[in-house]
Write a structure and sequence with these properties.
With about 180 residues, the chain is mostly beta strands. The chain is built from one helix and twelve strands. The chain has a five-stranded antiparallel sheet with strand order 2-4-9-7-8, with no helix packed on it.
């Protein structure tokens, strides 16, 4: 009898972990870190940059088996359901005047092109044309150069749907 109870206990608990792979899994993170591919931008080059998520954690949807089901971080299709808290805003600013219409501290989003991964696939276009809530990750680039070629530090700020805001500032970018 004890064997049957132990077997039933383990089977029911394992079912919660196993079935997590069948449900949408999400991820969350608690910060961002900017990344500039090449901080010295040659005359005919564009600036490629982006950010990575810091302390990314995977989580699964709750499995309802009429008992306390498991929340698991099982190694299946991690993050296949996208972020737990989708982005509501992405903002890129510079610490130096970029040009006459983009003084220091104003958004550069209309100058930025992106290649973004979404749950649906890949999306490309201007940052202002994409819905932040659909983006899982992105690569950004600027084809234009600052009016006076002054060194710049870019700050990327993201806001998640739960109200958390993360920002990070890049290393200095030099325009040759």
């Amino acid at each position: 009898m004890k064997k049957k109870i132990l077997i039933a206990f383990f089977v029911l608990n394992l079912a919660g972990f196993i079935s997590c792979c069948g449900n949408l899994t999400y991820y969350d993170y608690d910060g961002i870190k900017t990344k500039v591919d090449n901080p010295i931008v040659a005359e005919n080059d564009s600036l490629s940059f982006g950010y990575r998520q810091v302390n990314r954690n995977y989580m699964a949807a709750k499995v309802n088996l009429n008992y306390d089901a498991a929340y698991a971080a099982v190694d299946c299709d991690k993050g296949s359901g996208g972020p737990k808290y989708p982005l509501v805003r992405i903002s890129v600013t510079s610490d130096t005047d970029f040009d006459e219409t983009h003084p220091a501290g104003t958004e550069l989003n209309d100058l930025i092109y992106v290649r973004a991964g979404t749950v649906e696939g890949i999306a490309e276009g201007r940052l202002t044309d994409l819905q932040p809530s659909e983006i899982n990750y992105l690569y950004m680039y600027i084809n234009e150069r600052p009016a006076d070629n002054m060194p710049q530090k870019l700050t990327i700020e993201v806001e998640k749907s739960n109200g958390e805001i993360y920002s990070d500032t890049s290393q200095e970018i030099v325009w040759e």
